[in-house]
Amino acid sequence: MTTKRYTSPDPELDSYYGDLAAKDLRPLWELGEMFTSEPKAAAVPHRWRAADLHELAGRAGDLVPIERGGDRRVIGLANPGLGGAPFIAPSLWAGVQFLLPGELAPPHRHTAAALRFILGGRGAYTVVDGDSIPMTPGDLVLTPGWTVHEHHNPGDEPMVWLDVLDLPLVIGLEALFFEQRPGNPAQQCPARSASEMFYGQSAGLVPVGNQTPAFDGPSSPLTRVGVSIGDSIAGLYGAFGAVMALLDRQRHPGKSIPLQDRIIDVALNESIYSMMESLVPDYLAHGVQRHRTGGRMEGIAPSNAYLCADAKSVVIAAIPTPSSSGT
Ligand SMILES: [Fe+2]
């Protein structure tokens, strides 16, 4: 018997409880305290003073070689409300990591995801899946789960940052595992990582507190993304027109309109309309407004030009929409 045995003043019920416990069963009606009317938080508000953390982290730098701490010299923040568990909150672990000049925290990866707030120091960098990211005070570096990461401090100042991992959550899911990876030599860290250049200059991240006019320059992170779809489609139709003119000249030598007299006129708007299939005519002619259909292609049937045995082609098209019901 490993589960809790409940008791009752009623001898028959008490005996029943004994039988349940003997079979490792627990009655739900005795677990009422679990279902409270409002959340019960065990973690309590607590302040860890920066001066204490710096002082104690500095002493760890003197006393503990980095190899001794599982390749990371980190002091975890244990919330006093969690009964001694090494977590800052029931679902989060947090700790202060300390990397001395010339030290390397070698590469590894784990299923728990991490973020790092850089607190102090200069000249260090972290590498996440091969992307070297400079670490300066105030920076936030994200390390998604199972990405390989390592920390280098080639500078001459101790480096301190706050690590936060969803360790308790992943432990609760019984999904925590870890792998050490082959080491990499120290390298030159660029001023901006590939991640910053990719995500910081396209949709998704915009500097907070800045007005758009300040970002009109060529180095603005608010760059125009993608291509001009209208010009591209119209250009494609123009190219089709040129190819057809050449084909006509080849098939009808001496009879075709001279190329210099041909004009291929492509309208930008109509090129766009052609890409919208019958979207606009549906609405203009029948008042039909299309809605999202997920993966379904409403009213679309296979269409193509097929070569027949007699070397002739037949075009088969079928679009049964309100504005075009023929085949
Ligand atoms: Fe790690």
Automatic annotation (TrEMBL):
Statement: the UniProt record of this protein carries the keyword Oxidoreductase: yes
UniProt domain Cupin type-2: residue ranges: 98-164
Sorted UniProt keywords: Dioxygenase, Oxidoreductase
Gene3D superfamilies registered for this protein in UniProt: Jelly Rolls
Superkingdom of source: Bacteria
PANTHER family: 1,2-DIOXYGENASE PROTEIN-RELATED, CUPIN
Name of the protein in its database record: Cupin type-2 domain-containing protein
Provenance organism: Nonomuraea angiospora
Source taxonomy: Bacteria, Bacillati, Actinomycetota, Actinomycetes, Streptosporangiales
